[in-house]
Write a structure and sequence with these properties.
Order of helices and strands: HEEEEEE
CATH class of one domain: Mainly Beta
Strand content: 35-45%
Structural class: mainly beta
Distance between the termini: 76 Å
Shape: elongated
CATH architecture of one domain: Beta Barrel
Length: about 120
């Protein structure tokens, strides 16, 4: 990008910043604070670097008000206007009891053929 003129670079940075201002559905919750997720991919996500410049450890990922996953951030680095967070693991959140609990529903799971 060094070969681009200053005006073009400024325009690209402004377009990137404007694009990152879109309302985000996904957000990261950690330490009582909340940050919107700009982009998410397998093994990580990016946050707005003007809001947070360093983040590591255990975080929760929400889709609106619904928890989606827990993640362990092992590395984070600022790249332009984004904080790129790399995760070691990301575990989906289950919405319901564990499968080893007794089911309340007594409907048959299958039918036996007549003898």
């Amino acid at each position: 990008m060094e070969f681009l003129s200053k005006e073009i670079l400024a325009g690209l940075r402004e377009a990137t910043r404007r694009e990152s201002k879109r309302p985000a559905r996904l957000s990261v919750h950690a330490g009582g604070r909340v940050w919107p997720i700009l982009k998410r991919w397998s093994g990580g996500f990016s946050l707005d670097a003007t809001q947070v410049t360093n983040l590591r450890g255990h975080v929760q990922i929400f889709d609106g008000e619904r928890p989606v996953a827990t993640a362990l951030i092992v590395a984070a680095e600022v790249d332009g206007f984004e904080l790129i967070c790399s995760t070691k693991r990301e575990t989906p959140v289950r919405h319901g009891p564990a499968l080893d609990f007794e089911r309340e529903d007594r409907t048959p799971l299958g039918y036996m053929p007549p003898a």
